[in-house]
Amino acid sequence: MRAFIVDRYGKSGNVLRAGDVPEPEVREHDVLVQVHAAGVNALDVKIRDGEFKLVLPYRPPFVLGNDVAGVVVRAGAGVRRFKPGDEVYARPDKDRIGTFAELISVNEDDLAPKPKRLTMEEAAAVPLVGLTAWQALVEIADLRKGQKVFIHAGAGGVGTFAIQLAKHLGATVATTTSAANVDLVKRLGADVVIDYRKDDFETVLRDYDVVLNSLDDETLRKSLRVLKPGGKLISISGPPDPAFAREIGKPWTLGPVMRVLSRRIRKAAQRRQVSYSFLFMRANGKQLSEITSLIDSAVITPVIDRIFPFESTNEALAYVQKGRAKGKVVVKIK
């Protein structure tokens, strides 16, 4: 089958190789999915460039890609919830990525029915950012009606989804964006919009319950100032904390490293009487099914910036790497 492959890590002009690879193995509880579309994420760029090789040691050559929408081709003997012909979508488990390909094998626990009101391309834009927003706002933050949440980069992939989810949960939502995207984030539900090129968010916002950070370390530190005591700072861009080492099953080897990397922000959070959590979202078909229900009820609608053909996967990654996409970028494979 055709796929886009990482032959080596590296940031200097590194591109994926288009080539043929064997069809993936289908184990007892796996579902073989014919890929119709794949979301393209900043995570893909970071994996390609080797930024996660300490914690996600994929051995080149490997197929890249973390979002999929497609049709079930074959199901393992132990699969009970899916059958050939079913339309599905998923963020595969971190150890089984590879959606920039014609086929992928996914554990049935990581799959969910594709939202009926979405095209394959629209559905492929959802799993990674949808699960990130869900695990940050529902699972970690336990965001409630009447609370205030500040979501950085509201026009990005995670931001556009998180704003809609937070509004559904009944929160007041603040976000940052450029002037060109103010109308977009307001349509999605943002109550307070800050033009990051003109204003400093930490001088505008006060007494927030939750901050969802996806930007750099300086922004992360500034975010502490907008939280009230007891507030929660959740970051998807680091630094990783010791809990992350436990989650990925490497507490003895990576725990001390994560403790050092996150010491500064954890101490600063403690001084301000708030908590700090690093989130590296995980595959979860049950949560994705909850998201399917919200989408089919028209509570949340994915935002698509551009759709690239399969043969232009490298161009799609380059576009995402610029950091200017409104919502998600998708590769159409079938």
From TrEMBL:
Q: Which Gene3D superfamilies match?
A: Medium-chain alcohol dehydrogenases, catalytic domain, NAD(P)-binding Rossmann-like Domain
SUPFAM superfamilies, per database record: GroES-like (SSF50129), NAD(P)-binding Rossmann-fold domains (SSF51735)
| SMART domains to which the protein is assigned, alphabetical | PKS_ER
The protein's matches in CDD domains, at most eight in alphabetical order, are given as: MDR_like_2
- Where the record annotates domain Enoyl reductase (ER), the positions are 13-331
Signal peptide residues on this chain, from the entry's feature table: none
* Pfam families the UniProt entry points to: ADH_N, ADH_zinc_N_2
| Protein's UniProt name | NADP-dependent oxidoreductase
Q: Which organism is it from?
A: Lentzea indica
